[in-house]
Structure formats: structure tokens, C-alpha cells
Design goal:
alpha+beta
């Protein structure tokens, strides 16, 4: 069985995510909500462990545009409690009253801003102490780093992408040539073109950069 570099990276990312999501479960009471990489209306990654009933109600009421935890996260960085948000956003009383009917009567919210993107974490439960805040902050920064993609100046031609996709799947040059219906030398030329495009000096670096920038 061939274990590709891409597969190793994917497994590592999955392990990191599992560890930090488990941490967030441990410091929340009845669930948490996480939005990573807001750079407009929608985040690049979302995760919620609240009850299905509350999530459905949230969507039906279209609370995404009214949610004070999101308004806080987009306008400020740091930590706050739901009680403080209720006082700071008096128009949010209906939102918090509705949440309380689903058992979400208190909680904590944390926001970070990195490279022009915002990540917001909201956890149900009593007010965090210093330990919980440190754990939440570490988890939020790590999950943000996993899902944040830097702006990229590189572009790769589509034919070279076809070669790289098969490389990432564990195929050797001759197998790639057969699958694409091209000559072996063509496969090597397309790989070399891709390496020049991203300024890579090795195949391993090429795949690393392609994964980092989401180029395939």
C-alpha cells in the first residue's frame, strides 16, 4: 500500500482537528458553534454541536444575520460572555430568550482576526476561567491555521494539475502517462512546468505548495 505525501498531510490535519474539537467539547456545556475564516458573509469552515432542534430553529428564524456572537466577532477581538453580549446588544433579547428555551442560557464567545479573516467560537456553559480561555484560544488559532489559505500568486496549467492529482493519488509516472493517454516524457514535462510555476525545487515541495495553496 502506497502512502502518499498528500495522504500523510491530510491525516495530520484530521488528527489536529479531532484534538481541538474534542477540547472545545470538553469546555462547553450543551455544545459549541465555530466559524473559521470569515472574509465576507460566509466562513470557510463551520462546525456546530448544538442540538438539532436549536440549529433548525436558528435557520428558520434566520438568526445568522442577527446573531450577536457573530456581530461581536466581526467587530472586535477577544473574549466576552453571552450575558455581556445581551447587555451590549439590547436588540438581541429575543435571540437569547429563544436560545434559553433550548437550554442555551449562558455561554462564552471568543474572536480572533488573522490576515484579514475572522474566526469566531461560541460555547455554551458558565463563564470561563483562565484555563478554559487559554484552551479555547489555542484551539481557535490552530483550527484557523488549518483552514486558512494564504493568498496565492501561483497558477498551474490544467494539464499539469491532472498530473499532480494522479501523483497525489500515488501513481508513478508511467501509470500517469497510461491514464492520461500521453507519453512518459509529456508527464515529466508537465510536472517540471508546475514546479517552475510554483518555484519548487523538488517533487515533495511541489506537492506541499499545491496542498498549501489549494491549487488542485
Amino acid at each position: 500500500m502506497v502512502i502518499t505525501y498528500a495522504a500523510c498531510v491530510s491525516n495530520m490535519i484530521n488528527d489536529i482537528m479531532r484534538v481541538h474539537l474534542r477540547t472545545l467539547e470538553e469546555i462547553s456545556n450543551k455544545g459549541f458553534s465555530l466559524g473559521v475564516g470569515f472574509d465576507g458573509a460566509e466562513p470557510v469552515f463551520m462546525k456546530s454541536t448544538y442540538s438539532r432542534e436549536w440549529i433548525d430553529h436558528y435557520l428558520v428564524q434566520r438568526y445568522f444575520d442577527l446573531d450577536p456572537t457573530i456581530h461581536f466577532g466581526k467587530s472586535a477581538t477577544g473574549f466576552t460572555t453571552w450575558g455581556d453580549l445581551r447587555r451590549h446588544y439590547p436588540t438581541s433579547n429575543k435571540f437569547f430568550d429563544d436560545a434559553a428555551r433550548f437550554g442555551l442560557d449562558c455561554g462564552n464567545t471568543m474572536s480572533i482576526h488573522v490576515d484579514g479573516q475572522v474566526s469566531i467560537l461560541s460555547c455554551s456553559g458558565s463563564k470561563w476561567g483562565d484555563t478554559e480561555r487559554r484552551l479555547a484560544k489555542a484551539a481557535l488559532y490552530s483550527i484557523h491555521a488549518v483552514h486558512h489559505r494564504e493568498s496565492c500568486r501561483y497558477t498551474i496549467k490544467e494539464k499539469s494539475k491532472d498530473v499532480i492529482r494522479l501523483m497525489c493519488a500515488g501513481y508513478q509516472d508511467r501509470e500517469i502517462a497510461e491514464r492520461l493517454g500521453v507519453k512518459l516524457e509529456t508527464v515529466r514535462q508537465r510536472r517540471q512546468t508546475a514546479m517552475q510555476a510554483v518555484e519548487a525545487t523538488s517533487t515533495a515541495q511541489l506537492i506541499s505548495l499545491v496542498i498549501k495553496y489549494g491549487l488542485i
